[in-house]
Predict the 3D structure of the following.
Amino acid sequence: MTNRLKNKNAIITGSAAGIGFETAKLFGQEGANVTIMDISEEAANKAAEKLIKEGIIAKAYALDVTDYNAVQTQFKQAIEHYQGKIDILVNNAGIADFGSVDNTEPNLWQRVMAVNIDGTYFCSKVVLPTMLEQGSGTIINCGSVAGTVGIPGMAAYCAAKAAIMGLTKQMSADYSGKGIRVNCVCPGTVATTAMGQQLLGSDTSAATQKKRLSKYPIGRFGEPKEIANGYLFLASDESSFVCGSSLYIDGGMTTI
Ligand code: NAI
Ligand code: 1HS
């Protein structure tokens, strides 16, 4: 532990599992008071218990980031729980699904957009009044390589992630002069999470694996900790001059 987030209060959405959980753990190990928020109440509670057992200060809340009323209620409680101060928001919650425009049904399109982009907007909207009053804070959104290049058969997801990356720059333009930095991470495939497994699907044949990996110059997929490290950099004061950036953590996927 190097205490890079000592005395910072951090809310991480979608943090009961995967990249979000790894981020909550890392932030806690770096001295932050952590708020786990996740659509799965049971998983959120278990995640917080795990962190508390490690000596981390953590509290869990059930939250569907697409429900604006719930976002308002749960964030109010979460911010109050840590004495009304909020230093870090990580808009990590996201879902992916498959379909090209011609065969994506509107309800799937709307759900993918809702969780990724509406959720990012809702959660940011409710922390901003406190951050503006403080004159400090950092918001980190979750883009993707899919927000930069077209991934065949992922229309809604690519659109949602591109929107998040655009919103990141826009928010940075509005708030960086007010002490609030806004950035995003853009991960490449992290195969070990539930989303990674969904992405890779059931075809785990060597030929398919080789084809997928050929998109990654580094020759492997990412690990949740590698994305958490990016969130940590953007959350910490080490990135104090970094505003509105997209940090690609993708093994070079977007370079070829
Ligand atoms: P995951 O599926 O393993 O975990 C996502 C977490 O978010 C789960 O705990 C889930 O319950 C929660 N969640 C889902 N919908 C929610 C909602 N409406 N409200 C609150 N919580 C909700 O996913 P993973 O892989 O950890 O992804 C995290 C973020 O990283 C996502 O934004 C994803 O789009 C992004 N990402 C993931 C990549 C990957 O290959 N795994 C690559 C690029 C970006
Ligand atoms: C789900 C995540 O945002 C990554 S989409 C990229 C898929 S791949 O074709 O580069 O493995």
Notes: Strands lie at 9-13, 33-38, 58-62, 88-91, 137-142, 180-187, 246-249. The radius of gyration is 17 Å. The pocket of 1HS (ligand 2) is lined by residues 96, 144-146, 151, 188-189, 195, 199, 212, 215, 253 (CB under 6 Å). The longest strand covers residues 180-187.
